[in-house]
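[User]
If only I could read backbone structure tokens as easily as an amino acid sequence. I have put the entry right below:
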Amino acid sequence: MEKLLFEAPLIKPLNAGMPGKFGLKPAIKAFEHIEGVAIVDLLQQYGSPLYVISEKKIRETAQKAYKAFSTRYPKVQFAWSYKTNYLDAVCRVFHQEGAWAEVVSGMEYDKALANGVEGSKIIFNGPGKSKEELQKAIANRSLIHIDHFDELFMLIELSQQSEIRPRVAIRVNLDSGIYPKWDRFGFNFENGEAWEALNRIMLCGTLDLMGLHTHIGTYVMSRDAYRIAATKLSELAVGIAEKYQHHLQYIDLGGGFASANKLKGAYYAGVDTAPSFGDYADAISSGLINSRLDPMNMPLLILETGRALIDEAGFIAGTVLANKRLSDGRRAMVLDIGVNLLFTSFWYDHEIVPAVKTSDFTEDTTIYGPLCMNIDVIRAAIDFPVLKKGDPVVIKSTGAYNMTQWLQFINLRPSIVMIDTRGEPRLIREKETLDTMSERERIPDHLKMKGKE
């Protein structure tokens, strides 16, 4: 008979709270497998901590999103947001599902080309495009979304020197009811700046105006904000058609859809409050089809969804390093997963669960990472089971931004595994080594130690 784990006695006040419609809150259940693969086996094989991505979940979510929009609007195209997660394996899954590439830097642009995306199916966003990057995008016939007048003037100059006409759109910022307004990017709708940019493009004679683009924010919970944005872009498109007899090929509504993660300070989890793809599709398609757009020349609807497509497909598995008591008597637990690997913990209360069976006893716990810095807090307060040193845990819905905004700070970055659609783990990024970290460094001669270099 296996010896039971010893649990030290503790006096804990009962605070059951108000029962919901289904009774009191159940005990926290262990989450032991990802797509049928035991988490303890993954940690043993690839090390701890470990990023895990579900290819099956990516494909299911991408297909669900496309179905929601394509059943409500006749012409739909998704473009994968590279900044959300630009691991090549992840990008290629989305491209196999039919997505174009949406990039915001020269580095991301080159990754998209290397991943086999045709230049004409790359959308180049962002405020910091260089002259050389614009020249490359022109040569590849990519869709260049102009962010400001300085970029517009540079493009006009380049177009006068090129045999290929640049294919362009403008990014429009507008009041959709979301505050604070994202007016840092693009040309403003309300003050007429967007119209001035459009007039300059149409009158210069060397640029091909293909579409309009807006991105109203991030983790947007308001469906009506998208309806307003779609309506305003439609009015711009109608104005262009009336003034220049020019029908735009597409309207790009960007991204910003909420995922199932729970924002800090929110009462309910995102899985209970975030609009569905169908909700967003209803609002956007309503703004387009009820506008004055010519029904015989309806534009292609482009969506640059990132977070909502990948968040739930990502996990971080790790290990308990220590348990301790804080000065006020509260329990604290230290994991080998820090904010350097879970950057989104600064704005999400991520769901953290044990990856091994535990007792039903829980306690108010602060969960820290391993970094030697006071802000390395994964969860400030969570009712969590008692785990011992070496026990595995898993943090859910970590697929968006954590693998692009991660930091090589104090610790090396770990391996990343993708579980394919057959349930086979595939290593898609090797963990870093000291050589990985140091290979770009150079030591001046006067600092070299004899016999050590």
